[in-house]
Amino acid sequence: MKFNEFLKQFPDEESCLQHFRKVKESQGITCPKCGNTVHYWNKRHKSHDCAECGYRTTLRSGTVMESSKLPFHYWLYAIFLMTMTKKGVSALEVQRQLGHKRYEPIWAMMHKIRAIMGHRDDKYDLDGVVELDDAFFKTHNESDDDQPTKRGRGSQEQTTVLVMAKVDPKRGRPKKHKKSSAFRYVKMVVIPNSSSETMNQNLSEHATNEVIIKSDGWKGFNNIKDVSAKHIKKIVPPKEASKVLPWVHTMISNAKRTFLGINHHFKEEYLQYYLNEFCYKTNRRYFNDHLFDRLVIASIETTWYGK
Question: Which partner from 81, 161, 263, 271 sits 20 to 30 angstroms from 193, CA to CA?
């Protein structure tokens, strides 16, 4: 969807409200009190009233917008910018575009949308061949400001992330391709450490038991065979790791470049939200204009619980 098309379809608050109503009705509404699925639209209160018991369900109830006082067109515009821009957009830029006085509500709204993106990706488990590696993203932790900065693993400025990239091995690919496999999907999860227990737990949560794992020689991957069908482990020097796990390193590089150009820096506790957005858009890179509609549906189907 181009920007001029967005303005034609959603010129005011009422058009955005009616769009959310249309999508919510298409997904079906169930009364939380009696379980009835037949509702009628209450024009005065702008809600769906149960035809059986009269229980009133607002448009925001049961959606990512629950308990939010921001206008509907704020949400649609933020979803539009976050899906239709290739590299993403900062909360400060969205605040400027909307002309809102305070930064915090816009920042919180975008994090809620990113949380919905992660919730959507969590519904799908990786299978087939998966490249696995850990990465370190630079973050800011105010509690460590008074401590001397460490270097390497364990640094206060580095947050550990487990990166899983599903690939499709292609035998006999033309020589013009630099990689011998084709990329499919990626998942990135913030983890507290790189121990084998942590690796196994997160892999079992995001991949099937039949998955085939490809990794480097890091000791944290020694017990991966306990939660996978097969483990292909190659010990190589760090400079050659990108040859063993080409797509994992490509995803890590792309994510870091995206964050550096848009967000500059952020706290460790919010890193997962930004990773959610990167993975969601990468995994749906061929959706084109449909990405906006899919995220609107996901926002309506999923409630924000403050997690």
Answer: 263
